[in-house]
Design brief:
This protein is of the alpha/beta class and 228 residues long. It has a single domain (2-223), classed as Uracil-DNA Glycosylase, subunit E, CATH 3.40.470.10. The chain is built from eight helices and six strands; from the N terminus they run H-H-E-E-H-H-E-H-E-H-E-E-H-H. It has a six-stranded mixed β-sheet. Helix 4 packs across helix 8. The two termini are 23 Å apart. The mean pLDDT is 96. Bound molecules: iron/sulfur cluster.
């Protein structure tokens, strides 16, 4: 475990210092300059976001990218925005988080058995990273998964994360994304699909809280150690 934690720490330092994507380096700072009135005066993180959670995680949750005024502001994925409200509430209800809200990095949120990361670790304009930016960032997912040796399930939020995870595992042909889809990857882990808890999906009812929690229950079932 100590070696894994050291490797995770190394990856975290590399991610936070990363400047591989010039467009995103510029945008993560520009978003901070364009803070809406409700966040005026707040100091934005405005850097890449490393993954976070339990080094003994069996479940790896992969989002798309930090929100400009969510994670890019607070310095932690799914923290301080509507998607985070949905995700962390579902993770709390299914036993993966110690509290139902994710507000800021010092809020005491702890994950048990789970790790949260994004396919692209800098906020992109209009939440749309390019495929080159995704490819630049994928080695960080690989580095985290190499260190998180107990991970047996990768839960992807939305088609972008699904496709990024397929690329990371060199899956070919790539299975189609759909909500609650699952397949076994070449690395032996199970990949699960779930609609992203974006406002676009939650406000329209495309994704409901029971649907989101059901995917976490499925992950819990799949990650349970074999009896005996
Ligand atoms: S998106 Fe990833 S690869 Fe690109 S600058 Fe941010 S951390 Fe680096």
């Amino acid at each position: 475990m100590a070696g894994s934690e050291a490797a995770l720490g190394r990856t975290e330092r590399q991610v936070v210092a990363c400047v591989r994507c010039p467009r995103l380096v510029a945008w993560r700072r520009e978003a901070a300059r364009q803070a809406p009135a409700r966040f005026a005066g707040e100091e934005y993180w405005a850097r890449p976001l490393p993954g976070f959670g339990d080094p003994a995680a069996r479940l790896y949750v992969l989002g798309l990218a930090p929100a400009a005024h969510g994670g890019n502001r607070t310095g932690r994925s799914f923290t301080g925005d509507a998607s985070g409200d949905w995700l962390i509430r579902a993770m709390h209800r299914t036993g993966y988080a110690n509290r139902p809200v994710s507000l800021h990095r010092g809020d005491g949120l702890r994950l048990t058995g789970a790790w949260i990361a994004s396919a692209v670790r800098c906020a992109p304009p209009e939440n749309r990273p390019t495929s080159a930016e995704r490819d630049n960032c994928l080695p960080y997912m690989t580095a985290e998964l190499d260190a998180l040796k107990d991970v047996t399930v990768i839960l992807t939020l939305g088609a972008f994360a699904w496709n990024a995870a397929c690329l990371q595992a060199a899956v070919s042909p790539r299975p189609a994304f759909r909500h609650a889809a699952e397949f076994r990857r070449p690395d032996g882990r199970v990949q699960l699909g779930c609609y992203h808890p974006s406002r676009q999906n939650t406000a329209t009812g495309r994704l409901t809280e029971p649907m989101l929690e059901a995917v976490f229950h499925r992950a819990r079932h799949l990650t349970a150690p074999p009896p005996g």
